[in-house]
Design brief:
CATH superfamily: ATP-grasp fold, B domain
Mean pLDDT: 96
Structural class: alpha+beta
Order of helices and strands: EEEHEEEEHEEHHEEEHH
Distance between the termini: 16 Å
Shape: globular
Low-confidence stretches: none
CATH architecture: 2-Layer Sandwich
Largest sheet: 7 strands, antiparallel
Number of strands: 12
Radius of gyration: 17 Å
Strand content: 25-35%
């Protein structure tokens, strides 16, 4: 299937929305590069090749209706849930969370037991997804650390395949929080905090520059 990224940015469950010319291409390029990086480190994804512009070619899979979040630092909703943590405190170990994909309910946090009881996953599948998410975080954290950025947290989506679970959807500044040594965000937090579209695009251009160009381009 063809995955096409929009020139659009949203926040707060769609309450804030703007057109962002060129964002689709930046997101597609970065996702392609990140998927290639993950596969280089043995992490399976749905990615096939970069088609140019704002499009990727990907394999179609059965997506699990859960968002999987890995937190490396205390930030965002984790601080609201556990105010005893200090902002931007490095966690003793990465924390894996599951959130139900349901915009109307604000993508609520669910316990592992909830996901199993609802029939979304078996206990074995839950362990496999948690292990996959931690591998993704480890690969991406090392990559961005070498470029002077801290990976605060990330969100991935996963799908079933014939051989197990694969990472799908996107890996972009919309799904990762990345900060430099001065605490400056190069992710959608720029927009969430009230920054304009151009400020967001500047951050995404910097991410794309640091990541480099995708290598696996579609031919024919």
């Amino acid at each position: 299937m063809v995955l096409e990224f929009k020139d659009e940015v949203t926040a707060f469950d769609g309450k804030r929305r703007d057109t962002a010319p060129g964002k689709g291409e930046l997101a597609a390029r970065l996702s392609a590069r990140m998927f290639e990086l993950l596969e280089e480190h043995g992490v399976p994804t749905h990615y096939v090749c970069y088609m140019g512009g704002s499009r990727l070619l990907a394999r179609r899979h059965e997506v699990i209706p859960l968002e999987v979040i890995v937190r490396n630092y205390a930030y965002g909703s984790l601080l609201r849930r556990m105010p005893l943590l200090k902002p931007m405190e490095r966690l003793f170990r990465p924390l894996v969370e599951l959130h139900l994909k349901d915009d109307a309910r604000g993508d609520p946090l669910v316990l592992p037991e909830d996901a199993v009881e609802a029939g979304l996953l078996s206990w074995r599948e839950l362990w496999d997804i948690q292990s996959l998410a931690l591998r993704v975080s480890s690969v991406l954290e090392m990559f961005w650390r070498r470029r002077g950025l801290r990976l605060v947290d990330l969100k991935i989506e996963v799908a079933r395949s014939a051989t197990g679970f694969v990472v799908v959807d996107e890996v972009t500044g919309d799904t990762m929080r990345l900060v430099d040594s001065g605490g400056r965000h190069l992710d959608k937090e720029v927009y969430r905090r009230g920054g304009g579209v151009e400020a967001l695009l500047e951050a995404y251009r910097e991410l794309a520059r640091l990541a480099g160009e995708p290598e696996r381009r579609c031919t024919g």
